[in-house]
Task: inverse folding
């Protein structure tokens, strides 16, 4: 009977989910509130307000969508592009590719601007790919390659286009300033640097983008015109209209995780990610391993490293999991077995976690070798 | 600081969410597993298997979608209807209406078959509404009115059409036999009779419907062709393809809630809902209150009762919430302030809960009166 199985505790050092902050885990198990309870509405309002802080935005329409980060991507496109609209999409990894698929399903004319995996996007090339796109889109932190791109530079060049930004792996981990950078529509996930279990998509949209939205999007569930009333459109205490039943336990958990991040101070949290990533990346290189992402554009929170010649990627990951209860990720796409992805995100962005993964990897390589 | 606020504990006797089974709550706070961890894949496989039991189906493609019940509705339509396809939809409440909206956004030609609210659907009339629909759809248990409709009878008359069934408020509470009744596509929620927090949509689809599906649906997130690989298509131990990050904490909670239901025995769980609902409905009538749903078609798990003349609905609900920490629901649509909805679902489907809500309502009516 599974009820009597030992509890399994993992170090989640892959590309996400990461181990949540203890406050976020504890909040999951609080007594459940109704989704229209005044006490829950307070929690939702505070959550939206905290999300504004981590997004770096004053957007009234900032809310946790009731699905995972990938649904956030879908919400970004279904609300902004329809048949015939041009979407210029920077592709430098798996999630840029996915954006093209999602935008295409909205009927958009997709202009994909391809980049080598492991390199950041070239804002100039993206901005010049089409004279008058309705949207331009890029991934801030590519989870598939561990690369950071310069969203501020793209924002400077966007012109009349609406800029869509994927911040799934950057939010709560590295500098993110949606308003200063010109982000019109942004989506993220909870399970990486925010240190909360997966299940919600933090989302933000400017008034400018909202006014130019698709009036009746093909998705009812992700229709921002309907969802505004669900969260009171950022007006604390404002009227609510029933849209769907909020995932109350997940929202309570996000509320607690965000409070932890904001209490620590966003700058301090970013510095903690920076330090942990630096220890890890330096340590890996000292072990003779080669990093995958281009130098100068490496994410501290998600490190990609090449699997050494003659080493079987899966064997090492299996040893780490079974001997050390420690998860790291394989590579994405064509790099599935030649790259590892190591995340030190949210609660795991700590020097001790960096030292542990270095020591465990050394051990596993010795055993596998 | 909210960290030092007293914990609020409510009796959730509205139309959902209900108070989860303690096992489901405890599972939320277990150490998080990675979404590709072999131990999590076991949990996912067992969850899909348990879902087959509560659906009454052998469908390989039975899984928890990573969003709330309303996204289950959207998944049902985006995968089965496209421009020009005819969708016959039985409407006897809010959720039938919503189906029309969702199907329309898929480009379907919607034939709505309207019924009076509070009455069950008329299967004959629905089946005769169009000679060759691609789908016919109906709500098994209308959350807006507390009415049960005869899905088996509609299944008998469906002909070549695919039958879509909304089981959000019936699953785990009353008899549901998807295979015996001819359900081709079914969706549900976790937060009502299954006794789990909101956030997932239990979903099932027959091979017949899967073969006739829209090859590339307008939604990437809800594309069943992609989601099959995500859960191994019902083949335990089968290959997994990464689609999106599963909401692991919610799936672990559903896993635990389903185990509780199945350990108790589905027949026993249905009988428990029946008994609690009977005590409540009899007690309400003994108090001189009038039930809203048509006699003979009343759901035991969700009771609708007319607000007595001269009583302010909101005042009574406020007294219940503030004095007794007890939530009941207002009415839906045009009945917002003239009907109450009282749910005894999942863990709350107990005689003591029925007696409590009767006593508390009597008290609140006396105070409000």
Result:
């Amino acid at each position: 009977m599974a009820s009597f199985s030992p509890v399994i505790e993992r170090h989640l050092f892959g590309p996400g989910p990461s181990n949540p902050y203890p406050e976020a885990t504890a909040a999951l198990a609080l007594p459940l509130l109704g989704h229209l309870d005044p006490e829950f509405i307070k929690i939702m309002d505070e959550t939206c307000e905290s999300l504004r802080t981590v997004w770096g935005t004053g957007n009234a329409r900032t809310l946790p969508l009731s699905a995972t980060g990938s649904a956030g991507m879908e919400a970004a496109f279904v609300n902004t592009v329809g048949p015939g609209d041009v979407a210029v999409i920077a592709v430098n990894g798996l999630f840029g590719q996915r954006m093209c698929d999602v935008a295409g399903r909205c009927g958009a004319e997709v202009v994909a601007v391809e980049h080598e995996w492991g390199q950041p996007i070239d804002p100039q090339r993206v901005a010049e790919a089409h004279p008058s796109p309705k949207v331009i889109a890029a991934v801030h932190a590519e989870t598939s390659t561990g690369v950071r791109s310069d969203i501020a530079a793209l924002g400077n060049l966007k012109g009349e286009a609406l800029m869509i930004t994927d911040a799934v792996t950057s939010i709560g981990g590295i500098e993110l300033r949606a308003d200063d950078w010109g982000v019109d529509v942004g989506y993220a996930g909870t399970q990486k640097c925010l240190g909360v279990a997966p299940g919600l998509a933090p989302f933000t949209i400017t008034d400018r983008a909202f006014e130019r939205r698709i009036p009746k999007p093909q998705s009812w569930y992700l229709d921002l015109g309907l969802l505004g009333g669900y969260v009171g459109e950022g007006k604390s205490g404002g009227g609510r209209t029933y849209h769907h039943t909020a995932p109350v336990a997940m929202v309570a958990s996000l509320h607690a995780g965000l409070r932890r991040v904001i209490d620590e101070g966003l700058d301090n949290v970013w510095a903690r990610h920076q330090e942990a990533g630096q220890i890890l990346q330096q340590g890996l290189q000292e072990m003779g391993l080669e990093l995958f992402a281009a130098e100068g554009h490496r994410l501290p929170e998600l490190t990609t490293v090449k699997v050494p010649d003659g080493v079987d990627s899966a064997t090492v990951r299996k040893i780490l999991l079974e001997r050390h209860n420690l998860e790291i990720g394989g590579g994405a796409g064509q790099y599935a077995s030649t790259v590892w992805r190591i995340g030190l995100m949210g609660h795991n962005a700590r020097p001790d976690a960096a030292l542990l993964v270095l020591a465990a990897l050394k051990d596993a390589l010795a055993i596998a070798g």
About this structure: Chain A touches chain B through 64 residues (CB under 8 Å). The longest strand of chain A covers residues 86-91. Chain A has a mean pLDDT of 96. Residues 315 and 368 of chain A are 7 Å apart (CA to CA).
